[in-house]
Structure formats: C-alpha cells, structure tokens
C-alpha cells in the first residue's frame, strides 16, 4: 500500500526511506529484541502481556528502555493510525544502538535504536485457514538456549520455516531431546489421548508466549483439563487434537503433522472453542488505535 509510515528513533518517516546505521548492533550481532501486538477491529490484543514481556526481554539483555510505557503506547497507536491498520500487526524492535563493532557492550553506553512498523493482515484469509486447520512438519530444534528472550536472532527459526514452506506446511514444530519445544513463530499444543490439553512448560528453551498465557487462563476458567507438560512426537501423532497459538493466529488447529493426520483431519472442538474464546476476550480490554489521518 502507498504512503506506508515507520517510526525510527523519534521520527515518523516514509517506510521506503527508513533506515538505521550499518553499525547498529541489531545488524552486527542481533543484539536486539522485538515485540508484536495483534490488532483486530482497531484494538490491541493482550496489550498488558506484551508490555510485560517487552520489559522482561530488555532487562534480560540489559538494554535501556528508550521511553516509558505511556509514550510507547502512543507511538504504537500513532503508527497504526498513520498506516490505517485496523486488522493487522504492530511490530516493535529495540536494539542496544549503533557503535563501533565490538562484541562487548559500548562503553559509554549509546542510545538504543527503536523501530515501529504496522502492517495489515488478511483476517478473512486467516479465519478461513482456521476453519480448515493447518499442516506442520517437525524439525530439529537447533536454537540457542535462551529462547525465553524475544530477540531478533531468528536464523534457526527462519531455516525451519522455509523447510515447512517448501514442504507445503504452515509451520514447523521444533524437537529437542525427543520432545516438542515449540514452533518457529508459535507455541505448540495437543489434546492428548486422555483429553488433557498440554503445552511445554515455561523454561529457557521456549518463548513465554503471551497468547499461550491467555489460552491457559481461558482453559482454566472453563475448567478444562490442562497441564504444562512436555509431549513427544509420538504423543502428538496419537493426540485427539493439536493446535498452535500466536499473536498473529490466536489459536489455530493443526490437522496434519508430517505425513500423519491428527484426529479426523479437521479442527476439533477444543481448538475451536479456545480460538473463539480468545478472539472474544483478547481484544476487549486493549487500547484502541485511532483511525484515519
């Protein structure tokens, strides 16, 4: 779309002209974090959870926050408004800043680099995909051990996602020591053969998904049987249902893993119920991005 706008270090600029230094530590070392807010009907999903995870990621990498939460919320809303995005994503990236290339942190510290962009999402297409369910493949989890920090060091994720694309699948489930950790850009879930909803527990080898936390809360409120407990590929193949969760997709049923059909090959009642409940609840309390120019 024409006229797209990005926020870069205090200025709203045409996205095609936006840029950062070639010495920025995001470019040199992936020394940066990111966060993504979903927008639906102009409202931010799970707003508080994303701000909390952003604060944690910055703290874990010892990067200074470039502004307070209220000011950042204003920037996110303004970028969405200037791009006329009501259904889509708002992306934030913060790096340690630009400095002479050296593995150690700059001394003295430099100003962080902050980027915000917004993009539209085909909600109808995503809803149609949810009605059919998606396929995933399995791939070795070769990522670093601190996947709980939402950094931009995503090359292993990109390689696995490309493998999924070339296989005609939507996502790749990553496997380490025989168990599924998570997916390239989402958390992995099953409804096991006993009817228990399961997802890997919070450890340093998985991202603490904001949508994951919301789904756990929804399941608990509805008195569903749910456990934060790892599962193997074999357990996933024998499961009644499988699904993934992310800020982009909400809850999205998985109907095929590698060459194996899950359940009856259609989205099951648990995935459907959790998706509907999430979409109803997640955007209810979020800030509303102003529309128009």
Describe the structure.
Helices cover 30% and strands 27% of the residues. By secondary structure, it is an alpha+beta fold. It has 2 domains: 5-121, 2-Layer Sandwich (D-amino Acid Aminotransferase, Chain A, domain 1), CATH 3.30.470.10; 126-282, D-amino Acid Aminotransferase, Chain A, domain 2 (Alpha-Beta Barrel). The strands form 2 sheets. Strands 7, 8, 9, 10, 11, 12, 13, 14 and 15 form a 9-stranded mixed β-sheet that branches. Strand 14 and strand 15 (260-261) form a beta hairpin. The chain is globular. The two termini are 15 Å apart. The mean pLDDT is 94.
Largest sheet: 9 strands, mixed
Average predicted local confidence, pLDDT: 94
How many H/I helices? Answer: 8
Strand content: 25-35%
Quickly give the CATH architecture of the largest domain: Alpha-Beta Barrel
Helix % is 25-40%
Give the N-terminus to C-terminus distance in angstroms: 15 Å
CATH level-3 fold name of the largest domain: D-amino Acid Aminotransferase, Chain A, domain 2
């Amino acid at each position: 779309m024409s006229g797209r706008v990005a926020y870069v270090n205090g200025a709203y600029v045409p996205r095609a002209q936006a840029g950062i230094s070639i010495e920025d530590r995001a470019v040199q070392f992936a020394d940066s974090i990111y966060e993504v807010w979903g927008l639906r009907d102009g409202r931010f999903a799970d707003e508080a959870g994303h701000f909390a995870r952003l604060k944690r990621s910055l703290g874990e990498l010892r990067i200074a926050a470039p502004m307070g939460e209220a000011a950042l919320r204003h920037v996110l809303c303004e970028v969405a408004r200037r791009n006329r995005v009501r259904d889509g994503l708002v992306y934030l990236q913060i790096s340690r800043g630009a400095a002479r290339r050296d593995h150690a942190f700059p001394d003295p510290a430099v100003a962080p680099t902050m980027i915000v962009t917004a993009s539209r999402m085909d909600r109808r297409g995503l809803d149609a995909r949810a009605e059919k369910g998606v396929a995933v493949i399995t791939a070795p989890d070769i990522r670093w051990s601190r996947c709980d920090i939402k950094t931009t060091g995503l090359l292993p994720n990109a390689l696995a996602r490309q493998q999924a694309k070339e296989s005609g699948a939507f996502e790749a489930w990553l496997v380490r020591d025989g168990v599924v950790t998570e997916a390239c850009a989402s958390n992995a879930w099953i409804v096991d053969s006993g009817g228990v909803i399961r997802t890997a527990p919070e450890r340093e080898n998985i991202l603490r998904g904001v949508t994951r936390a919301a789904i756990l809360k929804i399941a608990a409120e509805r008195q569903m049987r749910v456990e934060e407990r790892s599962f193997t590929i074999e357990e996933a193949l024998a499961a009644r249902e499988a699904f993934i969760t992310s800020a982009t997709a909400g809850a999205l049923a998985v109907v095929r893993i590698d060459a194996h059909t899950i359940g009856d090959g259609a989205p099951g009642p648990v995935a459907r119920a959790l998706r509907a409940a999430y979409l109803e609840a997640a955007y209810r309390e979020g800030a509303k991005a102003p529309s128009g120019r």
